[in-house]
User: What shape does this take?
Amino acid sequence: MTPRPDEASANGPIEVTISPEANGLRLDRVLTDAVASLSRSRLQSLVREGAVACDGATIGDPGRRVKPGECYTIVVPPPEPALPAPEAIALTIVHEDEHLIIVEKPAGLVVHPAAGHETGTLVNALIAHCGDSLSGIGGVRRPGIVHRLDRATSGLLVVAKTDRAHQGLSAQFHAHGADGRLERRYLALVWGGPLRQHGTIDVPLGRSRTSRTKIAISHGADGRRAVTHFEVLERFTGTDGKPLASLLALTLETGRTHQIRVHMAHAGHPVMGDPVYATGFQSSASRLGPKAGAALASLDRQALHAAFLAVEHPATGKRLAFESPLPTDIASLLDGLRLDATPRSSAHSRKRRI
Assistant: This one.
């Protein structure tokens, strides 16, 4: 293949056709040789972000082995501003010191600027609040960000304000709690509910081949290990007396995009209100009582909340632990389920730390 140094800056997608000599090579290596103006790490990121397709099918694995005749299309996003602008957006701060800040992100707030969400993000708010103290390791578009929550997911999120804090927190999130320093728990209301009180979903995830914005179960080469642990806290019946919904506590052993939402949908118990992964359960709403039905109709997002966060302070070594109560919209749905029907069983969630 002939390198094409100007194509990355051209308007429109870049196309690379695999030659016989490249048979069996890694995709990221082949693309790097073909597109001289993009670095290998940049091309790897584009593949993982779903910006590379092979004969129309989105590819998510930079290590994929290529075959002669395959045609790869790369869609390079337009250049972004060097630095997000500060914006006076209200923040709910639960802890702040010179090294880090922990906030309660409301549903609807995007964490960092991206295509379609250039302003009005958590990063814009943090730049206004913290000024130049935010760590730059995360890149100019996501300073201080070591993890994120979906736009429609609410709850606790920690942000680094120094390079030392960024490195320490990133290491904890990379381990996902395996070393005991990080602990995260989510609360979710789901349709139906697992038969077991406790369990684990261990199913790989990858970018959907039919939609670049969705994640799907993937047992192929692009599938990445994803493990979710759940505990049933309460179960609820519908107006017909049959199982209808459950309140779950969930912990992540990995941190894939949309992991809880896709895993629960795969298990047959999608998160209530999820507009992407629970569309097949819209008819279940007819079995809700009047209070829960009204609460679900006004929810306008998935009933998923990051309720507990504990980290080891990267500078002092002290354990920081915080709980976040359910926001009003999810709490109203939970109250409606409790009022409309008697729980079949309860794990006494209100008497325990969630």
User: Anything to note?
Assistant: Residues 7-74 form a domain with the Structural Genomics Hypothetical 15.5 Kd Protein In mrcA-pckA Intergenic Region; Chain A fold (CATH 3.10.290.10). Residues 2-10, 343-354 have pLDDT under 50 and may be disordered.
